[in-house]
Design brief:
The structure holds 2 protein chains of 2 kinds. By secondary structure, chain A is α/β, with parallel strands linked by helices. Chain A is built from 9 helices and 10 strands. Chain A has a 6-stranded mixed β-sheet, with helices on both faces. Chain A has a 4-stranded antiparallel β-sheet with strand order 2-1-4-5, covered by helices on one side. Chain B is mainly α. The longest helix of chain B has 40 residues. Chain B is elongated. The chains are: A alpha/beta, B mainly alpha.
Chain lengths: 249, 261
């Protein structure tokens, strides 16, 4: 992969919480415009990997580059410009409780654009319409179902049209239809806007559909890295178990 | 036993150091533009204006009770005419600052601890950061400043409602007019009774805002962690406020030795 194609790079990254080692000397590249799926059992550090990418966590060792910029060398005040190019859908959506759904989506627009209020509200409604929540603008997050919250979180993550979208468990807790709709939306973003997707998921059919590259995280290491077909052919027992598990499709 | 006690002392000192650094960081960040003005106004409304009913009722009740106690003592010496003045001085110098501080620490301290704790464990603080917002400035600095601004105003309001409560208690017994009551109340009070005591409540506001924000912002462990942050916010800010009051009263007496004696 040429330096131009590489959008995100992990170089020998290690991360621990107390005595528990989560990531150990992990290195990988993510190509611009690709969809990179991180698979693995619960608690293996998939969400930690996403949070390292956006600078919410700092590694003990190693370097992380986004758009050729070493984010591990940036201080808290230097991170916002790079974060504006990224959207993050949290596992439980992390909508702001005190704001309505529409205000949640409008929040980044108010913070980071000079658009008039009417334009901001229009744009927030467009983003909500993109995820099928155009009629929920005034509702509070507590009044939404789990799936709707997740879609609202996605609308907020897309508000600034990020070039990189980090998605933590997009289909967790969703019915198959909603899950499939979110997959389609992610694929559309990738094809139409050339958005780079980094998706953490347990859902193997979803990963097969979205992912150009799949990795399996196990005990702090990537034990497999390749296309879905390449992972299908892996002889590693954990990878086999994962790819051919009940949800493996 | 001694080991355990030593460990507790060390942990206590470490926590005090952390909270102090957290508070100093909040003050430093408050001076670094831009200030989150909209959020600050919202917090002043939440912390200040929404505490008004509690402060009004408490001040009114304290005024009545203090007036009744003062009467039972002063009438023995035939000094009932001093009741308004004694009440006003007591309220302005000590009762209103301390009671307001403790009430705000209960209502606001618990609220900030629970709100920020909830935001931490549900990843809303991470979400703010991921949206390129400085969560410390947006959440902590605004709450600490709002507490500093609101506390002296609420204290003044409590002094006023306390005097009104005292008047109600007094007029039932002596049929005193409100004008005469106010004249007597303010005849014995000077700015030096009011200003230093009210300004010290800004320090109380700083303590409440800092301690509760620190505990909420660093909460861990789900709903239980949020509950812990909320409870500890009230307990620690109340204790620190009472201890700070001792020091601040000493400082005020040192600065104004003649006026306040």
């Amino acid at each position: 992969m040429s330096a131009n194609d590489c959008l995100i790079r992990f170089e020998s990254v290690s991360k621990s919480f107390g005595s528990k080692r989560i990531l150990q000397d992990v290195s990988f590249d993510i190509a611009r415009g690709s969809a990179f799926c991180i698979l693995g059992r619960s608690g293996t550090g998939k969400s930690v990997t996403l949070k390292l990418m956006i600078g919410l966590l700092r590694p003990e060792q190693g370097k992380i580059f986004v758009e050729s910029q070493e984010i591990t060398a940036l201080n808290v005040r230097e991170l916002p410009p790079i974060r504006k190019t990224m959207g993050f859908l949290f596992q439980n959506a992390a909508l702001f409780d005190s704001l309505s759904v529409g205000e949640n989506v409008a929040f980044p627009l108010r913070r980071h654009t000079d658009k008039p209020e009417a334009d901001i509200q229009d744009r927030a409604r467009q983003k909500l319409a993109q995820v099928g929540l155009e009629h929920e603008y005034e509702k509070m997050p507590a009044d939404l179902s789990g799936g709707m919250r997740k879609r609202a979180g996605l609308a907020r993550a897309l508000a600034l049209d990020p070039s990189i979208l980090l998605v933590d468990e997009p289909s967790a807790g969703l019915d198959p239809m909603t899950s499939s709709e979110i997959d389609n939306l992610l694929l559309k973003l990738k094809s139409e806007r050339d958005t780079t997707l980094v998706v953490v998921t347990h859902n193997i059919p979803s990963a097969r559909r979205i992912g150009d590259e799949l990795v399996v995280l196990h005990e702090g290491h990537f034990i497999a890295h390749g296309t879905a077909e390449e992972l299908d052919r892996s002889e590693h027992p954990v990878v086999q178990q994962f790819m051919h598990s009940e949800g493996g499709g | 036993m001694i080991d355990r006690l030593g460990a507790l002392v060390v942990a206590g000192l470490a926590a005090t150091g952390d909270v102090s650094l957290f508070g100093l960081r909040a003050l430093r960040e408050a001076l670094r533009p831009p200030l989150e003005v909209r959020e600050l106004i919202r917090q002043v409304y939440e912390i200040g204006l929404r505490s008004v009913p509690l402060i009004a009722v408490a001040g009114f009740a304290v005024g009545i009770v203090m007036s009744m106690h003062s009467r039972s003592s002063l009438e023995r010496f035939g000094a009932e005419a001093l009741i308004p003045s004694v009440l006003a001085i007591s309220l302005a110098r000590e009762i209103a600052p301390l009671v307001t501080g403790l009430l705000v620490s209960g209502r606001v301290g618990a609220g900030i601890g629970a709100e920020l704790g909830g935001m931490r464990v549900t990843e809303q603080i991470d979400a703010l950061e991921s949206l390129a917002v400085d969560s410390f400035k947006y959440l902590v600095v605004t709450r600490v400043l709002a507490c500093i601004i609101a506390q002296p105003i609420l204290t003044t309001f409590m002094s006023f409602t306390g005097i009104v409560g005292g008047f109600v208690a007094e007029t039932v017994i002596s049929n005193l007019s409100f004008k005469l009551y106010l004249d007597r109340a303010f005849s014995g009070i000077e700015f030096v009774d009011y200003i230093p005591a009210t300004l010290k409540t800004a320090v109380f506001g700083f303590i409440i805002g800092t301690v509760s924000s620190y505990l909420g912002y660093n909460a861990q462990g789900g709903a239980e962690g949020v509950g812990r942050a909320s409870t500890k916010s009230v307990v620690f800010s109340s204790i620190l406020l009472i201890l700070a009051n001792v020091v601040l009263v000493k400082v005020i007496l040192f600065i104004f030795p003649d006026k306040l004696r």
